[in-house]
């Protein structure tokens, strides 16, 4: 048996860091600016606890492009480094000065978050630079300045230097020929805004011209002056306590996040948790209309105010990825390049907590101002319905605030609605039948028949309703959903009363093949029913089971292969209508066929989902004309 220590040489690891550590070379700027922020935060901490006598002064970090000399420089006025510290922190791969600092001052460093963790970020600079130089001077009095340079090989130069006269560090990147895009001011400004716009230390990139106005009317004067261009907001809204923010602050923050969005969000949810894990953020509910393309990747993940990714798969439940906003947590485990999430048990806990907070907020809004919640319902229902289908815990909570709209535009929770219809819409088998329509105008004829019976009809539209009904039917109560055009109204809610048929069984046997001979048997099933004589003679219905399974199959679910099944319809013939008796008694075969054809065509017209009340009245009049 032998033991030893695995040896990793710089000759072998350096090319890997340069080429493969980061998925995107642009991340180097995020890493170097983050290091500058850490150096500044460390100085603030040491000053606060009395271990640094340095005057803090202006701590703005400077980012400068020198296109002529092909350099990009990141300068800070932070803690700085002596030659010995450069040797310790720069020349040792994967030795994190930030991690060491946090461990040393764990009980005292409560005022400033430290970003660094792995001790590799600095070396990302060699992905874009042929040479990197460091000019640094420690905050401690009497320390000598330091100079370090390296051309991307394991060889480096380290010596004392007085070039940097004041406290802090300059990182100078000599951009290589393959990466000259990083000498373009527009490119650097975009990257700073992407990765650094909410860092806690001011970051300056060049200057900008502003216009100031004095006086008004004829005395109004405008003057222009040049000021430092600070690209970041050091105290974003999510880093503040909810009690310190007004409604307008949240709206302004939303505009900061999405400057090209002109529509305000419906409401926000402020996450502010420090136990059992660290979690801050603000989530916004956008307006979502039915059938619009839903956009994901609108929630941004930050760690200590550093942008990480907008792909939050795992940390945010799938149904909430349609929300907008920010989540910031130092407890979210990231890979070594801080580019994406690592699989971890903490992620599930955080995800579950976010779901709970969203549900609690929705419940609070519902209870606080129900009328306002109802006015927003159609804008948010798709997200909530998706959540109810994909998350059982959210489903349980949502039962208290999820709304269902009747065709008369009144709203009720599911429990309230079942109580409302219990007396009238319980069938002979004890099932509570929820009637619904997918199109208020298009299914007007069927809705009218239900309302004439004293029944209420829900308006349920959207790609998820078939799945949602299936889930609601699976509860403890005997509830079933039936679309108003899926059968005759007397069959949808069957009562004990038996309707007497004017036609004998012998007459029915004679009539059925006559009508079947005039319709496409591959599409229509002829069904003879004894309905009220006031009902139309011909009616086309879509069987609930077939239609629902096809819809579920089209959106992922239902029975395999149902989506490819052809459309099937029932042609319901009301044997108690005078027109049907006339058809049976008609001796002229041609006229008999014409009556059947006209009756079926009128039924098809009534079933067309593009028309409403006017068509219903027209069809009824035409049936009366046929009867005459």
Automatic annotation (TrEMBL):
Where, by residue number, does ATP bind? 31, 35, 76, 81, 96-97, 169, 338
Example of a GO MF term: ATP-dependent protein folding chaperone
InterPro entries, per this entry?
Answer: HATPase_C_sf, Heat_shock_protein_90_CS, HSP90_C, Hsp90_fam, Hsp90_N, Ribosomal_Su5_D2-typ_SF
Q: Which CDD domains match?
A: HATPase_Hsp90-like (cd16927)
This protein's source sits in the domain of life called: Bacteria
Alphabetized UniProt keyword annotations: ATP-binding, Chaperone, Cytoplasm, Nucleotide-binding, Stress response
What does UniProt give as the signal peptide span? none
What family name appears in the similarity comment?
Belongs to the heat shock protein 90 family.
Protein name per its UniProtKB record: Chaperone protein HtpG
């Amino acid at each position: 048996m032998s033991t030893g220590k695995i040896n990793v040489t710089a000759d072998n690891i350096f090319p890997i860091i340069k080429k493969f550590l980061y998925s995107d070379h642009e991340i180097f700027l995020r890493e170097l600016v983050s290091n500058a922020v850490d150096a500044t935060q460390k100085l603030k901490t040491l000053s606060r606890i009395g271990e640094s006598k340095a005057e803090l002064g202006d701590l703005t970090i400077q980012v400068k492009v020198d296109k002529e000399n092909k350099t990009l420089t990141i300068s800070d006025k932070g803690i700085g480094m002596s030659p010995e510290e450069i040797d310790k922190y720069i020349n040792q791969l994967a030795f994190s000065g930030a991690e060491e600092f946090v461990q040393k001052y764990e009980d005292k460093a409560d005022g400033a978050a430290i970003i660094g963790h792995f001790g590799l970020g600095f070396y990302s600079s060699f992905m874009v630079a042929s040479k990197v130089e460091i000019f640094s001077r420690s905050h401690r009095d009497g320390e000598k300045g330091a100079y370090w340079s390296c051309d991307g090989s394991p060889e480096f130069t380290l010596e004392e230097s007085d070039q940097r006269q004041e406290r802090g560090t300059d990182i100078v990147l000599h951009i290589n020929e393959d990466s000259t895009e990083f000498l373009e001011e527009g490119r650097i400004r975009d990257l700073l805004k992407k990765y650094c716009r909410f860092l806690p230390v001011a970051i300056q990139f060049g200057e900008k011209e502003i216009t100031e106005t004095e006086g008004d009317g004829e005395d109004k004067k405008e003057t222009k002056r040049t000021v430092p261009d600070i690209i970041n907001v050091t105290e974003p809204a999510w880093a503040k306590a909810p009690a310190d923010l007004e409604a307008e602050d949240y709206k302004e923050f939303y505009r900061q996040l999405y400057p090209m969005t002109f529509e305000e969000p419906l409401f926000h949810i402020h996450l502010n948790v420090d136990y059992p894990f660290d979690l801050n953020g603000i989530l916004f509910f956008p307006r979502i209309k039915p059938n619009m393309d839903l956009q994901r990747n609108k929630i941004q993940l930050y760690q200590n105010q550093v942008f990480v990714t907008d792909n939050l798969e795992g940390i945010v439940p799938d149904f909430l990825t349609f929300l907008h906003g920010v989540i910031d947590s130092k407890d979210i485990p990231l890979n070594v390049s801080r580019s994406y999430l690592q699989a971890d048990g903490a992620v599930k806990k955080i995800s579950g907590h976010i779901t709970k907070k969203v549900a609690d907020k929705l419940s609070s809004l519902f209870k606080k101002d129900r009328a306002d919640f109802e006015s927003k319902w159609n804008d948010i229902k798709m997200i909530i319905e998706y959540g109810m289908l994909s998350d059982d815990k959210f489903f349980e909570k949502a039962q208290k605030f999820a709304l269902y709209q009747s065709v008369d535009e009144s709203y009720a929770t599911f429990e309230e609605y079942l109580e409302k219809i219990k007396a009238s819409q319980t069938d002979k088998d004890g099932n509570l039948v929820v009637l619904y329509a997918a199109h208020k105008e298009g299914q007007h004829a069927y809705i009218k028949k239900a309302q004439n019976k004293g029944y209420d009809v829900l308006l349920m539209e959207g790609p998820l309703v078939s799945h949602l009904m299936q889930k609601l039917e699976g509860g403890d109560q005997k509830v079933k959903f039936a679309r108003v055009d899926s059968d005759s109204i007397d069959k949808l809610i069957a009562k004990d009363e038996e309707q007497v048929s004017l036609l004998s069984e012998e007459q029915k046997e004679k009539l059925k093949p006559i009508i079947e001979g005039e319709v496409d048997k591959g599409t229509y099933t002829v069904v003879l029913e004894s309905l009220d004589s006031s009902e139309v003679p011909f009616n086309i219905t879509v069987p609930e089971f077939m239609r629902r399974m096809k819809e579920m199959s089209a959106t992922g679910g239902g029975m395999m292969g149902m989506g490819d099944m052809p459309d099937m319809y029932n042609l319901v013939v009301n044997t108690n209508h005078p027109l049907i008796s006339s058809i049976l008694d008609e001796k002229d075969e041609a006229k008999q066929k014409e009556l059947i054809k006209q009756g079926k065509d009128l039924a098809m017209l009534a079933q067309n989902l593009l028309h409403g009340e006017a068509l219903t009245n027209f069809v009824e009049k035409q049936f009366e004309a046929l009867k005459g």
